[in-house]
């Protein structure tokens, strides 16, 4: 097929509409290119429940095997289950998923051995260049035998590995509602939660890549309305929602109220620090709450602030030898999980923390939720840099403020902060702000939006 790879190859992965933007013939080329760039002699593949995923994954495996590489197919899995296989087997991996995107999309998340990410700066640009050249000239022949393609089920091993990283032995019985959004959580949750003293109320566990109930994107408040209502009706202790490939988890308390990912980051950080003797580095991106570095310091740890994006988090995790990292988008990274992100492990931490005491989840997380945040507000703009310059000009001469440009523009005072970041893929500016009280937050938010939207 003819393909515009500039629209298909993103900063961290491959993602586009099937079959309009890519198909199995292109997936085969990606398999061959992945082998050449990584130098793999063997690799592992997995896929989600989208209708196009099995065919794309099989084509990738064929492209890799044709170049002499042995492929282990683990089949239906969550993205963090693929990372588990990459780490446990010491193999590069490829996961076929478009995460929370609508059904017509699919993609590839690639990693080197040990779940090390492959992004634009770590091999993805070279993979794209090879595929583009082969679209014109064809894939060059290689000598030697074709590699093997074998199947292996890793679900039980993945579940056992996760349960070995959290002490769940003394938790009290809990009633938990889980909304899998017809995504891969419906495949992994029953096995991971098996044997725990939980009354599990499943929602949308049927694997269906057409997402008949709602988009598998719990970051959008509209997609957790069903979960919130069910928690209240059931009188459950908490609710958990997973995205389409089940690598992110979102939590609601016993009242059905959302628990911010920053509060979950702070909660898990305190537990991981305790597990590591009250010491260690914790990574957080620059739009997580002030409460995260505060809690890390209170528990003996060292907080390190990074840019937004999993490639930056994972790179900093490795560089700093960090024990844990968290993002506002509900990605949670663990040293003991090859620095990769796993929402399932974060969910087990929440269950262990809640089940290890007698109080409610809302009371438990109150200590980690200290400030008032706006959430992320997106605005379409004609000129991102001009708007950023206007914001900088409005604040840079105020003596009680600090400005930094680690990622977009962050402006901080003693009582509030805001960050404005340009989208890499759309003509958008993304605003996040936080303050010590609701009135201050609203004032700062509206002031900055007034500049952004002119």
Automatic annotation (TrEMBL):
- Matching Pfam families: PGM_PMM_I (PF02878), PGM_PMM_II (PF02879), PGM_PMM_III (PF02880), PGM_PMM_IV (PF00408)
Which InterPro entries does the record match to this protein? A-D-PHexomutase_a/b/a-I, A-D-PHexomutase_a/b/a-I/II/III, A-D-PHexomutase_a/b/a-II, A-D-PHexomutase_a/b/a-III, A-D-PHexomutase_C, A-D-PHexomutase_C_sf, Alpha-D-phosphohexomutase_SF
Q: Where is the Alpha-D-phosphohexomutase alpha/beta/alpha domain?
A: 7-133, 156-256, 263-371
Domain annotation Alpha-D-phosphohexomutase C-terminal: ranges: 376-449
Q: Which keywords does the record carry?
A: Isomerase, Magnesium, Metal-binding, Phosphoprotein
Q: Which cofactor does it need?
A: Mg(2+)
**SUPFAM superfamilies this protein is in?**
Phosphoglucomutase, C-terminal domain, Phosphoglucomutase, first 3 domains
Family to which this protein belongs: Belongs to the phosphohexose mutase family.
Specify the protein name.
Phosphomannomutase/phosphoglucomutase
Naturally occurring in which organism (per UniProt): Streptomyces prunicolor
* Organism placement in taxonomy: Bacteria, Bacillati, Actinomycetota, Actinomycetes, Kitasatosporales
């Amino acid at each position: 097929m003819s393909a515009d790879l500039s629209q298909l190859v993103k900063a961290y992965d491959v993602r586009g509409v099937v079959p309009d933007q890519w198909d199995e013939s292109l997936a085969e080329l990606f398999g061959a290119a992945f082998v050449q760039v990584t130098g793999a002699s063997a690799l592992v593949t997995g896929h989600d429940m989208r209708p196009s995923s099995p065919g794309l994954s099989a084509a990738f495996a064929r492209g890799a095997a044709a170049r002499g590489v042995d492929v282990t197919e683990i089949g239906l899995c969550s993205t963090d289950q693929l990372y588990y296989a990459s780490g446990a087997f010491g193999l590069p991996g490829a996961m076929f998923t478009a995460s929370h995107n609508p059904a017509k999309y699919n993609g590839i998340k690639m990693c080197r051995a040990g779940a090390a990410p492959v992004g634009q700066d770590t091999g993805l640009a070279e993979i794209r260049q090879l595929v583009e050249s082969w679209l014109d000239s064809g894939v060059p022949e290689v000598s030697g035998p074709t590699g093997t393609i074998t199947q292996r089920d890793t679900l039980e091993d993945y579940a056992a590995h996760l349960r070995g990283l959290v002490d769940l032995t003394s938790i009290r019985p809990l009633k938990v509602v889980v909304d899998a959004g017809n995504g891969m959580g419906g495949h992994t949750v029953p096995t991971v939660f098996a044997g725990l003293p939980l009354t599990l109320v499943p929602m949308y566990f049927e694997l269906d890549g057409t997402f008949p109930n709602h988009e598998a994107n719990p970051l959008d408040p509209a997609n957790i309305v069903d979960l919130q209502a069910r928690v209240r009706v059931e009188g459950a202790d908490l609710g958990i929602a997973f995205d389409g490939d089940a690598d992110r988890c979102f939590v609601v308390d016993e009242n059905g109220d959302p628990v911010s990912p920053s509060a979950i980051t702070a909660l898990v950080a305190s537990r991981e620090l305790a597990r590591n003797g009250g010491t260690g580095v914790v990574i957080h991106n620059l739009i997580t709450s002030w409460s995260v570095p505060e809690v890390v310091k209170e528990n003996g740890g060292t907080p390190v602030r990074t840019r937004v994006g999993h490639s930056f988090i994972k790179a900093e995790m490795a560089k700093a030898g960090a024990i844990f990292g968290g993002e506002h988008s509900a990605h949670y990274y663990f040293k003991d999980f090859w620095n990769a992100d796993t929402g399932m492990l974060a969910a087990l931490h929440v269950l262990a923390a809640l089940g290890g005491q007698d109080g409610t989840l809302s009371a438990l997380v109150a200590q980690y939720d200290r400030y008032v945040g706006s959430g992320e507000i997106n605005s379409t703009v004609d000129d991102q840099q001009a708007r950023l310059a206007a914001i900088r000009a409005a604040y840079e001469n105020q003596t009680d403020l600090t400005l930094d440009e680690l990622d977009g523009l962050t402006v901080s005072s003693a009582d509030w902060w805001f960050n404005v970041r340009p989208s890499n893929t759309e003509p958008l500016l993304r605003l996040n702000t936080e303050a010590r009280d609701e009135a201050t937050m609203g004032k700062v938010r509206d002031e900055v939006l007034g500049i952004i939207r002119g």
